[in-house]
Amino acid sequence: MSFSVLAASRHALRGTDIALLVAVGAFILLSGFLAMAETGLTRTNRVRIMALAEQHRRGAGVLLRLIEHPERTINPVLFLLLLCNLVAATLVGVVAGRLFGGLGVAVATVFEVVVIFIFAEAAPKTWAVQHPERAALLSAPIVAVLVRFPPLRWLTRSLIAISNFFTPGKGIPQGPYVSEQELLAMADAAAQDDVIEREERTLIHSIIDFGDTVVREVMVPRPDMVAVESTAVISDVVEIAIAAGFSRIPVYGQGIDDIVGVVFLKDLMRAEREGKSDEAVSTIMREAHFVPETKRVSELMREMQTKKFHQAIVVDEYGGTSGLVTLEDLLEELVGEIEDEYDLAEVPVERLPDGDVRVTARMPIDEVNELVGADLPEGDWDTVGGLVYSLLGHVPTEGEAVDCDSHRLTAERVQGRRIGRVRISNLALTESDAGAGGAEPAT
Fold this sequence. Notes:
Shape: elongated
Order of helices and strands: HHHHHHHHHHEEHEEHEHEEHEEHHEEEH
Oligomer: single chain
Helix content: 40-55%
Number of helices: 17
Largest sheet: 5 strands, antiparallel
Distance between the termini: 83 Å
Strand content: 5-15%
Number of domains: 4
Number of strands: 12
Radius of gyration: 35 Å
């Protein structure tokens, strides 16, 4: 049967059919707008929108409120998008069935696959992927009105509750949830886009790392501690405190593992003015606070704030003294080194003309890796000096070196059994430089 005969045998296009087709067009346009809105809202950069809101960009404030609670926004948009596509497809099927009979199903299917896919899905979503910020700002005011519409909000919440009932466990949690890696990536991207300063990016990284840092990583190690014996006289301890530049000094009994208290410089000066210079320092010492070396620094800082103390003795698993930690040590983990007039001017990082880097042996492994772009292993040690000890298996002599992860670690300064500074050389760069220098020029 020819197409003309088939068309002639069917009803002519009526006014209701035209109205239905107009409705189909409207639903497709609305579906395309919702598809663009969904893609724009999910792909837009929150940090960028926060900056635009601070600049009072039109629509940025509304958009920021939407993306702060995506669980309240995306579900209504997805529901309306699905509803528009289904209604449009149904109306096309009704009109095609009346006009073409049995072939109407095939006609409707082709129309739905081609037209709806192109104009209601692919085209708007592709544009939104290419221009996520513009798409989000354009759709934000209308989406804000839609998600506040009480019937729609109630319906989507009810449907989500029903879906959660059939979901194993406790259903889908209400977000949003952002991992530490995502926060760090956002801070890096914001710094690259000049939304935040480099110092602010560093502070964000420090704050996130602060929660994972333990006391052992920030303490003053036992060999660097300045402590006095409990039988020492006050006048001698005053001289030690002034020479060291410390306001608080631990006091020990039988040995450094037997810390019995802490003496304050202000108490020493007051006792000396009262004529007690020849008395033992144990008469004016105060109670010492002890913390395990595995305690998190964030917990210790809260404890220092609550109990109002600024110094704690760090003990190992056997009860021996590992070192001491001060409130200043904790703050330096957040804001960087805090130097005063008593601090020794020792440069922690020194870049050498040949490309090598000289660092203090106390520098943490993660900071060294970030500094030189290496992947030095982490283990029972926390510092680059500890790594050198572990790799060598003995106390190094000054100038002794060991290779690890394409880098050479040289113990440049060794005091007794302790490594002072480590020189780090990139073996790959060294070999390439040597090869370039040894090659003969082409003739």
